[in-house]
Amino acid sequence: MRIALGKSGNTIYTVDRVAQAADILLNRWPAPTGRKHIAARKACLRVLRGLNETRHARKAFVEAAAEADILVERDPFE
């Protein structure tokens, strides 16, 4: 999936790994922390600890990015 970051949302990132999503959620999230953001952080960390499947983190990250209005394109398979 692709998200827009930066002061003007002009830097587009392709996020294709859970570790990358976790880094963005923990260190570079451009919006105030919301319920879906927290859920995505937890989902990514659970995957990185081997406690959950990648699909759960992906779904949570997409929902958080949509809530923060930084999602550039939706996955056609969702």
Automatic annotation (TrEMBL):
<protein>
    <submittedName>
        <fullName>DUF982 domain-containing protein</fullName>
    </submittedName>
</protein>
<dbReference type="InterPro" id="IPR010385">
    <property type="entry name" value="DUF982"/>
</dbReference>
<dbReference type="Pfam" id="PF06169">
    <property type="entry name" value="DUF982"/>
</dbReference>
